[in-house]
Structures are given as structure tokens and as C-alpha cells.
Task: structure prediction
Amino acid sequence: MKFGYFDDKKREYIIKTPKTPLPWINYLGSEDFFTLVSNTAGGYSFYKDARLRRITRYRYNASPLDQDGFHIYLKAAGEVWNIAWQPVQTDVNSYCCRHGLGYTVFESEKKGILATQEMLVPRGEACLLCRITVANVGEEKKKVDVFPYTEFCLWDAMDDASNFQRNFSTGEVEVTADTIYHKTEYRERRDHYAFLWANRTPDAFDTARDAFIGIYGSPAKPAAVFGSGCTGSIAHGWAPVGAMQFSLDLLPGQTESIILMLGYIENPEDEKWESSGVINKERAVAMQQRYDSDKKFFAAREELADFWSSLLSNFTLSCEDEHVSRMVNIWNQYQCMVTFNMSRSASYFESGMGRGMGFRDSCQDLLGFVHMIPERARERILDIAATQFPDGSAYHQYQPLTKKGNMAVGSGFNDDPLWLIAGTDAYIRETGDYSILDEQVAFDCDASLAQPLMEHLRRSFNYTVEHLGPHQLPLIGRADWNDCLNLNCFSEHPGESFQVTGPSEGPVAESVFIAGMFVKYGRAYAELCSHLGLIEEAEASLAHVEKMEKTVLDAGWDGEWFRRAYDAFGQPVGSKECEEGKIFIEPQGMCVMAGIGKESGEAEKAMQSVKEHLDTRYGIVLLQPAYTNYYLNLGEISSYPPGYKENAGIFCHNNPWIVCAEAVLGHGNRAFEVYRRTCPSYLEDISEIHRTEPYVYPQMIAGKDAPTHGEAKNSWLTGTAAWTLLSITQAILGVVPTLDGLKIDPCLPSDWKGFAVSRRYRGAVYNITVDNAAGAEYGVKELFVNGQPLAGNVIPPAPAGETVEVKVIMG
Ligand code: BGC
Ligand code: NOJ
Result:
């Protein structure tokens, strides 16, 4: 069942009912100020850091669900409703929510009143704008009361949700004719405040939640709205809120608009006060004046649209399949940008109070956004590398605000170092900018230890070489990509973190997955060395890679597929010898992507085994058979009920690895089949089963062992975004940036007649048309650049500013 539809022209998803299977959200903002907004206007805002600078309050895991947000109540003819349905939940005659790129618009009609609520974060500003229109579409004069309402958070979201003995006494506000200022703690150590402003003077306001909602009231039945209006309350402690009331008289056909702003201001220490106890509002007023008319709002809206058009114009596809087109051209790229902004911090499944930026997560996210924002990717790589330890290992996470490694999680995730090579390699292939390798970058955030970035990559490479176990496979440490395969943890006590309990470095447990990574990204490292003229190092590195390849085919091969690991007792994990967990997806994907066993047949066999044992109609599960017991020697993976998360869930992140692996073998039909199964747009028709947004990827879909097979969770913030974009654009469509230029190497479903891609690459634009009249799955027969035949399929980079016409004939 569908709950809405795609409007590809407008690049929107339009939701036709507020009663979606879960809140379906959008992200507003792409620099410092962010708002999450659901299809019923739930959500919250923060500045830079979702934990430390939370502007509005949100209660996760609440029942009723998703009641905190930026709500507009309407009251007319004795009835109360919300433009976006929540929290009052009064039925309206018509409702729609349009989630677009960086904006969301609600529209609903009731009692002859047509109202809209349009929300966006303007470029370069620390504020949320919300423009409301209220139109009398009836025959008679109408009186309508409009009440915007949002609840302020006392800045540190974690403290706000727990330290009530203090926080119930600290809240402070200041009110002017058109603005409610939230200034808790500004008197003491803070230099920032937030505010709710309107471009017309409200008739009344409230700043104390108890007054607006009522002590025993609820956002679904606010005392002020259902009673006789706002009371002019001033919050002293407790819960400061921003609530206003506008009383409008509308003639038939008349429309009124109100622009609201939720703003955030920082003042220099010596400019904090206007007079004793009165905050300096200069910057706030200036910001308000920049958006005090419809005209200015529309200009901000246009600037935002231009921004997104320009970002998405770096890669555009036209093909026969509307699902693929809309994912590639719009939503998959959009999701990649959201993962750039948020990493894994704030979604409707990540509270914004937990994880910082993941070392491996951020390196992988980069694969999905480097073609849109190469300069910011560069900066990101340098930030990440600065948290690396001198021995090449890495902090598993770092904090976005301080850019410092996170001690609480520490290090010991032995795949981390190699992801730095993966990310840097992707950046250089995209940009050709080798100068990044000369940048001096700190180790462990200590500038006195700085070395060129190339030295960081070298230490990443060597870390693996120097940490091998009994089979000469890489030691796994606390975990590799699979955070839940904790072979050195042995946790017996509830509540212990599987990731940090036990020794970080077991001398025995090994990972075949890291071995596959080492072959893939070790080879990329060797290639970088040769491009830099480091011929000896390139050869020595390749020798290590080749040795590892042999080791994988020996100790890592199980007969029908690649093994997953060896545990702390030297016993295989992911082998037919195991009772449960006989086969895992990760080493099949990574080893075949690395080309291991391509010539000798193991790669083919591994892919067949994936199909035979791990396929389901909704995607490929992570392992089989699912673990039914908790195994001390395996850790968190066996803590999940069968079919969920890492225990045989469909972990979307590694499905595209299989797409890429199948493409390595030239299997275009199978590659596309795997791509299609988890592609959200294809799943729109079964939204009642899938439940999360049909426009973005979730982290996980319940596997075949789960009672809720097909149900997705953890939408938005997942490495799936980057890897699926890579799998469709590079493995299937075959538009691959290399160190030497743009390679065209499609691996297509044989019934595709062709496609066209426009790709901006190193400043030039490549208009590529691929003709597959031959019905091939793989193989470029002829390639013409500006009408001239080219030997091979790597197009040397054209000068910036040029347009290059590329024609490719498959066969
Ligand atoms: C989840 C993993 C995640 C890890 C992060 C686990 O509970 O299942 O997906 O990577 O937490 O710490
Ligand atoms: C989510 C984590 O963010 C990611 O780093 C990890 O690879 C996967 N879970 C699998 O455990």
C-alpha cells in the first residue's frame, strides 16, 4: 500500500495521509543549523551538535508518538486542529505533506480554511523559517486564531532529559513585542540564546509550558488553545516555550501570511548585554529583518533550490526505469548529503545524544558525496586522519564540535585504518588532487606529531601488515565492519558495552573480511605509490597484497564460500563446520570486490552460495542460519533475536557489496536484481510492510527468520546511502573515476537498451550515452570521445570547463 507518491519534476515526495506507518521525516539545513521534521511537523532543531546545542526538545520513544515539534494550531468556529494534524489529530478535509530537498510544506483544509506551513533553513543562517498562510476559501467572513508552539530545550539534550533537580530552576526568557527569547544560562557561562519571532505582532503569547499546555494538559489539548487564549505567561524555571496567538479576521477569498523564525544567536563575551540583565538583541533583530517579508522568504527558497540543483547536477541519469532515475538523480544523492551532515548522530532512530562521528562511517560516507562537495570531503579526510594514532590504529569515533577522538569508545576496531585509504583514494580519483597527500596532519590530535597525510595512509597499510594472527589473516580486534562480531569480548554482564568490554587486542581472533579489504584497498594504496613514483614501495605493498590474497584462498576459503573469521580459540566462524552462522555476506562481498578468486573460480562459487543461502525477496540477509543462542565467544551478534540487525537481518549496507561483486564478474542481471530488492522506490507499494520512508534507505530490514520479515528500521543515517549510490553509478552504470581519468565500464541488465549520464568530473562535463542494443550484460565494444574512437575505456581528463561527448557501444 502507498501513502503518497513521488513528484520527480519537483523532486518531492508527497504524503497524502498523516497516518503513515511510522513518522516519515526530512532534514532541513546543510551547514550549522538543522531541523528534523516529520510528516506531521514533529521533530526538533539544533545548532551544529545534536547533543550539546539542542534548541528544541524532543521525547524519543514516546507514546503517543512524535508529539514534539513545530506545531501550528488553528481555531475557528469552536473547532481546533493542526495544519499538520499532530498533535491534536483532528481530522481535516484534505491533508498533504511535501518533503523536498531541504524544505517541507504542509497543506490542509478544514471549515473552509485552507492553511499552509512551509519550513526551511535558509542558506548561511542559523535559523528555521516557517511561513504560514491562512486563506478563507468559504463564502462567509471568518475569525481564525493561529497558535504556533514549540518547546525549548535547555541546550545539552542529555542533561535536559535527566537533570531535573537543577533544570526546573534555571529556565529564563525575555519577551519583546514580536519575539520570545530563550536565554537560559545566558546570565552565566553561555554566550548564546534562541528565539521565536514573528513578522507581525502577536495578539498574545505564552512562554511557560504550564500556562499554554496546562499542568495536566497535553500538546493534544493545550489549555490556552482550547480555553480562552494565551495568557502572557513568563517562564521562571520549569519549561520555557515559545507560543504565540494571532487572531485573524478573514473575508471570503482573503489570505494572510505570517513568517515565523526559530533563531540561534551567539554574542561575543563583551557584547552580551544591552543593559543590565537585558540581552543584546542586535544580531537577532538583523537576522529577523533579513526575512521579514514574503518577498525575502521567497528569495531564500529560491536560493535553496539553486543550491540543490547545482549539487545534483554533478551526476544526472536518464534511463527507462523511473525508480532508478529518481533514486540516482534525487533521493540517493540527497541521503548521501544528509549522512555527510549528520554522520550517525540525529535521526528518529539515533537520539543525537549517543555516537559522534564514526571513523569508518565517515570514510565510507565520503564515497557517496565526494563528487558533490570535493572541498568539504577534503576537509573531512584531514579531520578524520588527525584522530589516527601514531601506530596507524584509530579512535573509532570523534566529536564533531571538538574534532577530538572519543576516549569512551577508544580504538581497536581493526578495519578502521583501511577505510582511511578507501576514502582518500576515492577523493583523489575524483579530483586528481594529490596535494592532499602532502598536507601535514596531526596524530592523535597532537600537532607536534604531524606528518603528511601519505604517512597516515602508510601507517594504515602497515597496521594490518603488523597485526596478523595464527593463519596470517588480520587480527580483528574489538570488531571489524560488523560492530557486533565481538570475538574478544566475552561479556557475561547485562549492560556492558559489547564494543568496549574485554581486551581490544586478542592475539588469535582473525577477520577474513579485513583480509579482503586489505587486498582491495592495499592495491589502491600501491597504485597511489606508483603514481607518486614510489616504485619500490608500490612493489613491496603489492607483494603483501598478493600474499594476503593467497592466504584468503587458503585459510579463508571454506569450500563453497569465504569464511568470516576465526574466533579467539582459532575456530572458524562462518563455515559449514559451524552449527549456526555457517555463511556470512561480508567476506563474500568484500573478497570478490577485491577480485580474490576471480580467475580460479572461488569468486563465482561464493556468489552462487550467497544466492542459494542468503537471498530473500526483500534483500540478502547477513548470515545463515541465524544464531538462536547467545554465544560468549561471538558477542553482540548473537544477542539479537534471529532475523534482526546483524543476526541475519537484511543489513542494507552490504547488499551493494554484492552488487559490486557481481559486477566484477560481469553479471549484470544479477547485480541489478540485488540492487532492486532493497531500493526504496521499488518498495513504495509495500509501505505498510516496509514502514520506513519510501524515499531513503534504512539500515536494516528484518530477515527471513524474523516474524516481521520485510519490516525496515533505522532509516536515513546509514552507510547504505553511499554504497548503493556507488553500486548503481559505478558498478552498474559503470561511470568510474580512476586515477587516470573517467572509466566507462557498465554492467547492465540485458534488457536495458541503454542510458545516458551527464557527469561533472574534474571541472569538465561528460555527456555519456550508452547503447546496449546488443542486449549485453557486460563489455564495452566501442567507445567514441567527441566522435573519435578511443582505445580502451578510460577517458583521459579533459580541461576544466570543457564538454565532452562520449558514445559507448556495448556488445
Ligand atoms: C548495532 C550496530 C552498531 C553498534 C554501534 C550495535 O548495537 O547493532 O549496528 O554499529 O551498535 O556501537
Ligand atoms: C552501524 C555502524 O554505524 C557501522 O559502522 C557498522 O559497520 C554497522 N552498523 C554494522 O555493524
Notes: The pocket of beta-D-glucopyranose (ligand 1) is lined by residues 483-484, 499, 636, 645-646 (CB under 6 Å).
